[in-house]
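Researcher: I'm preparing a figure for a lab meeting and need a structural model of a single chain. I don't have an experimental structure, so a prediction will have to do for now. The sequence is pasted below. Please return the structure as tokens so I can convert it later.
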Amino acid sequence: MTFKITRQEVTLDSVAHPESPVKVPDQIGLISISQFSTSTDIQFEDILNDTMSKKPKALILDLRDNPGGYLDPTYNILGHFVEKGKPIMFLKIAEDEQSKTPTETEN
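Model: Understood. Here is the structure written out token by token.
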């Protein structure tokens, strides 16, 4: 038996308009993020724009069962909700301090 193996990148959608087991009113937007992969922020922006075009009164970000992932896409997503120039993250280990703000993200 002979097999031909082809190596290629597999891209999985990590952002979706999920079917909620609980009825969410039409005037509330719902976006699910299943993991933070390298393209999650790009996928999120597309779905966020679609959701916001419907003028929802509120937005639910469903992060249930999300195992985490890459930080940069996470910062880029948070940049949509945190005022530019305000810290998203502040980390202090001994005397070394670091922070990340939405102005440092690629929106």
